[in-house]
Specification:
heterotrimer; A alpha/beta; B mainly alpha; C alpha/beta; B: mainly alpha; MetI-like fold; 11 helices; 73% helix; elongated; C: seven-stranded mixed β-sheet; four-stranded antiparallel β-sheet
């Protein structure tokens, strides 16, 4: 397994109390796998991603767990060692790409710099590759000569994705990379991300769009209130969700090709500082039982992982 | 504004929060306010009467010494605060009442009117405040009322610019457009949608321009444009004490000078502190 | 109910100093380049397209936030583009808008209740006491209960979804006849969207509203729209009944959009689209879409196709004949 997260707990300490953003999550990704982590805002999916690349800062802290990447436990590495890993071995595309583009350099130059550093090519070849990379994210190749301020927010986001991909990391984590973008561009970017599978790499996509996850991933992980509540093969999960939350989420989303009976999800995601006792989904769950006042264990059902009392008994 | 920089250099320690600045500023201002309000109760002597001992150094009997006519400086400082506060507050209130509405209307409607007014305001703003105040006071003649007029005119452009700037940026905000789409009239938009959102700016500008106005008032008073003897006023004391400094009688100048600086600092701290607290981006 | 005829909006291009010195012509961005459509009473027309296609500008023109460069908008028997400021203000009562960003469309200093009362007071429909009553009722109607508590809150105390409900309440309190909804759910969390859409549709049914629903999400357009209009570079390239356009798209752009939309179902078709959106400052000759169209032929670069058809129209020299 390329990435093996075991019992990860990332908590945030505030005046109001302890915010259990990621609460005992275990998940694994193999090479050539594309997995999506799906959930509403506040479910912990972004925190999980930031924990993996160890970008959690006070008041947050990785309290427990192992993050095994290519044999190494990332939780135990020093900041210096992590810095060497970031970008090159584990790439990340953030939600808000205002960060890493130098406003004084043409975007082509910035891509070329990274290409030269990691691939054995001369400058001419690097510029050509940069142009191709831009085409792959749906921008025309001649934009290599543009400066960041000449591009729109969505275009800059695409350049960031191109940069992250050009570093050729073993694992790429993309946090809502296409939220601000149109469908056509979204498709191009998804093609690009999926393409990484062919190069023996792995991709983790973080999104709130279930249809997008179902469309492209090999596996889907559903998070709710800091828990991993379901994980399994994408197609099967999307068509036959086991956990009532996954079911509710899927039924509340329209699809362009068929008339579905859209049912809004009742209630709101819980306060992570003071979550409901027992199963955190219980207040909103149409199938809640008496048992659910106790935290459900994680059961394995035909290759699917579900954290719900409907699928097993306590041992 | 020089005062703003002074406060900034002394107090811009990163860890010191806006709240501390406002607190310390308020403390200073309150002390002076109490001084002014309760002057008859606090001042140990009558400020206009001589006690006989001229040019006495500060002592237990005369905390700040006596001036060249034997009057207790401490009492003169206390009574002087009344003139300073009254002139500066009235002038600032007048400036605000003129500058804010003009800034709001000009910024909101734009066009030729805005361009014309902005040009006028910019040319006034280009003058150093003291010079402009002197020019106006010279034309009107020395008196407390004329000083108030002169100082209020000087600060109108300050309010105008800040309010106009804020109005311009608020004008294009979505919630203002939403109000237009509902069908709100311009007056309603200005009054209910724009004005409430610039109140914090107005308060900050008020504090900072009072800080500056104190210096301007001191300057005008120094040149004799405000009070005439024997009325005490800090700037006036400074000019009266100046000839005695070379002879070593430092207390006539030092205490009024310190008071001017301190009071100005107090208001600057309030203004800067408030602008830290209400910094843009910290939506309340 | 509302009819738009040949609507145009051209924005003059901001030039740098050098550009001003070198060229004499004023260039325009043709944000909306001659579009026409009707929305009948009780009907929802979805306006879809990528960003920059002109859909938001169209919405803004309809509610008077932009002045059109040309064209007519016939509403309640009058061309509202020709009305003066005061007359238009009165028309606004029947023509409301719901904005995309729930975090920016509410006044941070006004109470929630005041937001909802405002339209009533502005149009002199109710006095203070009545307005408060109506506002409280409306708060209950949109699910913000307990109403009297929400009445006194300020926007920063509400979540995005709640704020959008306030925006809807504010738009609906005047019982308008036509509403422009500009991407009302795109900034709302996915699981909460269905509830907001439900709320909107319930008002539409109750008041027999006509709605122009602007969105880039075709899945949402399918749910809300009776008809759908697809825009590209300021023009409508296809318009017709929602299900017909989705399952039998005529224009290659519509087909390309459809094949790019993520779905739970597997699609049988994949239509290519070449390159990036053309520069609106320099649109291509002939059919604006031809440089990106995999089916383009010579005539497409010379002659601009007109919108043709009876109830399902498309602007294409070689419309597709698909069954998806």
């Amino acid at each position: 397994m390329l990435l093996d997260v075991k019992n990860l707990k990332t908590y945030f300490y505030s005046k109001r109390g302890v915010l259990r953003a990621v609460d005992n999550v275990s998940i694994g990704v193999n090479r050539r796998e594309f997995i999506s982590i799906v959930g509403e805002s506040g479910c912990g999916k972004s925190t999980l991603a930031y924990s993996i690349i160890r970008l959690i800062d006070t008041p947050g802290k990785i309290v427990n767990g192992k993050i095994l990447f290519d044999g190494k436990n990332l939780v135990e590495l020093s900041e210096e060692e992590m810095r060497k890993l970031r970008g090159r071995e584990i790439g990340m595309v953030f939600q808000d790409p205002m960060t890493s583009l130098d406003p004084l350099e043409k975007i082509g130059e910035q891509i070329v710099e990274t290409i030269i550093e990691h691939q054995d090519v001369d400058k001419k070849e690097a510029w050509e590759r940069a142009a191709i990379l831009l085409e792959k994210v749906g921008l025309s190749g001649d934009r290599v000569n543009y400066y960041p301020h000449q591009l729109s927010g969505g275009q800059r986001q695409r350049v960031m994705i191109a940069l992250a991909v050009s570093l050729n990391p073993k694992l790429l984590i993309a946090d809502e990379p296409t939220t601000a973008l149109d469908v056509i561009v979204q498709e191009k970017i998804m093609d690009l991300l999926e393409g990484m599978k062919r190069e023996n790499r792995a991709v983790i996509l973080i999104t709130h769009d279930f249809a997008l996850a179902a469309d492209r991933s090999d596996k889907i992980a559903v998070m709710y209130a800091g828990w991993l509540i379901e994980f399994g093969e994408a197609d099967k999960l999307a068509n036959e969700p086991l956990h009532p939350y996954s079911e509710g989420l899927i039924s509340s989303v329209p699809d362009v090709w068929e008339d579905r009976d859209i049912k809004p999800m009742p209630g709101f995601p819980p306060d992570l500082i003071d979550p409901p006792k027992g199963c955190r989904f219980r207040p909103r769950c149409p199938k809640a039982m008496d048992k659910c006042i106790n935290e459900p264990p994680t059961f394995s059902v035909n290759g699917r992982i579900v954290k719900c009392w409907l699928y097993g008994e306590n041992k | 504004m020089e005062v703003k920089n002074l406060a900034t250099t002394i107090f811009r320690i990163p860890e010191v929060e806006g709240r501390w600045m406002v607190m310390s500023g308020l403390a200073i201002v309150c002390i002076v306010l109490i001084m002014a309000i309760f002057a008859p109760l606090i001042a140990p002597y009558d400020p206009t009467k001589s006690s006989g001992e001229i040019l006495e150094a500060p002592s237990m009997k005369h905390l700040m010494g006596t001036d060249n006519l034997g009057r207790d400086i401490f009492s003169r400082i206390i009574y002087g605060s009344r003139v300073v506060l009254m002139v500066v507050f009235s002038a600032s209130l007048v400036s605000m009442s003129i500058g804010v509405p003009i800034g709001l209307i000009s910024g909101y409607f734009g066009g030729k009117l805005d361009r014309a007014i902005s040009m006028l305001m910019d040319s006034m703003y280009a003058f150093p405040s003291l010079i402009l105040a002197i020019a106006i006071a010279a034309v009107l003649g020395p008196s407390v009322v004329n000083a108030v007029v002169a100082i209020s005119v000087v600060y109108v452009p300050t309010y105008f610019r800040m309010i106009r700037g804020q109005t311009l940026s608020l004008k294009s905000r979505l919630f203002v457009e939403a109000a237009k789409a509902i069908g709100a009239k311009d007056t309603r938009i200005m009054g209910r949608y724009i004005l409430p959102n610039i109140v914090t700016t107005v308060v900050v500008v008020f504090s900072l321009s009072v800080a500056d106005a104190i210096l301007t008032e001191a300057g005008l008073s120094f040149l004799g444009f405000i009070v005439t003897a024997p009325t005490p006023d800090w700037g006036f004391e400074l000019s009266a004490g100046r000839p005695y400094l070379p002879a070593g009688y430092w207390w006539m100048i030092t205490f009024p000078g310190l008071m001017v600086m301190l009071l100005s600092l107090g208001f600057a701290l309030i203004g800067e502190g408030l602008s830290e607290i209400y910094a843009p981006g910290r939506e309340r | 109910m509302i009819e738009v005829k040949n609507l145009k909006k051209y924005f003059p291009v901001q030039k740098s100093a050098i550009e001003v010195l070198l060229s004499k012509k004023i260039e325009y961005i043709r944000a909306v380049d001659g579009i026409s459509f009707k929305v009948e009473k009780g009907e929802v027309l979805s306006l879809v397209g990528e960003s920059g296609c002109g859909k938001t500008t169209t919405g803004r023109i309809l509610v008077g936030l932009e002045d059109p460069t040309d064209g007519k908008i016939i509403f309640k028997g009058k061309d509202i583009t020709k009305l003066d400021k005061e007359e238009f203000r009165k028309v606004r009562r029947h023509l409301q808008m719901i904005f995309q960003d729930p975090y920016a469309s509410l006044n941070p200093k006004m109470k929630i209740g005041e937001h909802i009362e405002d339209p009533l007071i502005i149009h002199n429909i109710a006095d203070n006491k009545e307005a408060r009553e109506l506002a409280l009722q409306m708060l209950e109607r949109v699910g913000l209960v307990p109403a009297d508590q929400f009445y006194n809150r300020l926007p920063y105390q509400l979540s995005g979804g709640q704020r959008q409900r306030v925006a809807i309440a504010r738009a609906m309190i005047l019982k308008p006849e036509f509403v422009v909804a500009d991407e009302p759910v795109s900034m709302i969390d996915v699981s909460l969207r269905a509830a907001i859409l439900d709320l909107l549709m319930s008002f539409k049914a109750e008041y027999s509203l006509s709605m122009l629903f602007i969105t880039h999400d075709l899945s949402v357009a399918r749910v809300v729209g009776d008809r759908i209009a697809v825009m590209y570079l300021g023009k409508i390239v296809e318009i017709g009944e929602t299900r017909k356009v989705i399952h039998r798209p005529k224009h290659p752009y519509t087909a390309a959009l459809l094949s790019a939309v993520p779905s739970f179902l597997k699609r049988e078709i994949k239509i290519e689209i070449i390159g990036d959106v053309a520069n609106p400052r320099d649109p291509p000759p002939g059919c604006k879409y031809h440089p990106r169209c995999p089916f383009a032929k010579e005539i497409c670069s010379k002659e601009e196709p007109k919108l043709e058809g009876k109830k399902h129209l498309a602007a294409c020299h070689f419309p597709l004949d698909l069954n998806l």
